[in-house]
Amino acid sequence: MLTSLKTIYKIGPGPSSSHTMGPYKAALDFKGLIPKDKDINIEVILYGSLALTGKGHMTDAIIIKALSDYKTECKFDINTKTIHPNTMTFIAKKGFEVIKEETYISIGGGSVIKGGESFIEEKEVYDISNFAELRERLSQCDLVSYVKKHEGEDIVEYLTKALDEMFGCIERGLETKGFVAGKLKVKRVASDIIKTSESASDKDSFLLKLSAYAYAVAEENAAGGTIVTAPTCGSAGVLPAILYYLYKYENFSKEKLVEGLMIAGLVGDIVKHNATISGAVGGCQAEIGTATSMAAAALTYLENENIDAIEYAAELAMEHSLGLTCDPVDGYVAIPCIERNAVGTMKAYEAYVMA
Q1: Closest-CA residue to 16 (of 331, 289, 285, 344)
Q2: pTM, full prediction
């Protein structure tokens, strides 16, 4: 069964939900399991994808930050085989004595499994596991009522905060210039794109604005800024770009856009439950593909189309994202990740139109 939409929309530091948010959460959890003692040293072993791309994703830096009360060393092990590519082991020692040892798996979207068995935070909220079951429930109520029934009324407040964070991220990204992604020195171009949109034709201006908004978030993420997973850090620009355009140019209220977040969140939750939103496991189709499906579903809903069109738009967006691999240059969430957010945004709009 599906978990809360709060697990899809997490607010936190980029550049990677699986390589930054997840390890940060695991480190904080481990910190709570050991005594406060300055003589305790912590060794963290990163395996698989965390080892291969951890430097570019700042995995070691975020773990050391979370465990700043202790002397912490991160080691990268690319040879040991694990059941999941985002596996990490924390070992606390006092002298030669092991005080505590725990293994965590970062499964994507900032979510973590502890000990390979139980979730740290996620509880089942919904009584469905796929879209067919969702459709059955809608014979009794509408989509928004269904979400509120299972989440509680506080979901509106939570999603409103998430929407504000998304919009704030776009606005920061549009105003900031310079470079991201460490040694790659990738130039920020969101501000240039939005400026170009002002003198372009109506059709091109629309596409350029969508691209600028997606770039703005993706560039903020690559720089380690605060973003909202949708469903991951690396794909965090797609859905906000669509919603921000509707807010700025189509007179959609934030209250209505929060409903769009609900519908998009259900789509992301269904993918997460039945497949994966982790790029290390499912490739970029798991991240950008899911984000594109979420955005297409939200847009279709907000344009007052029925459940058939919403489902078709989400499916179409995912179907034509299949095959995308997770292949960031030097492990940084920059090339091709930033551009893919813009492409995913335009693909989401096309999926809505076709649906």
Answers
A1: 331
A2: 0.89
